Amino acid sequence: MTAPRIHTSHRTVSASLLLTTLGQSLDAIKREDGATWADLDAVLGKSDRAAAYAEGSADMGVVSFLRGCKQWDGRLANAVLALIGMRLVPVPTVRATREDILSLLGRQSKEAADLTGVLCMALSNGQVDAAEARQGRIEAEQLLAVVLAMIAEFELIEREGQ
């Protein structure tokens, strides 16, 4: 008997799951923002398509997807991108020097490592409940977003310097 192979970096994800996940995100945005389908259609640059996207019965084009990403950031994209091991991170608009980025990156990385260490220790000792673990995950994800944005800025600085 052979065990199933799991390769998370090469995970197969069905198109229907991608469409359903994106649709759920769009539906959540509608609910959370108190918007109408027409409001969402306007952002996406379509007419009478947002409801079909939310049902998972229509394939959203790249232009509409990118318009949604611009308007709603990770609220639209991150659940579906997570299925393929990615996430949307805004690139900061503040220009910093290479040294500024490296210094801040070092501090943020240490803070992330400290937070992760404390959370892992508390989990292994049974000193944290599910709500505290979720809060720790939220804080870690926020730190990760900052670190990823700094890395993107650092890459931009290096590209411009070449």
UniProtKB/TrEMBL annotation:
| Superkingdom | Bacteria
Q: What is this protein called?
A: Uncharacterized protein
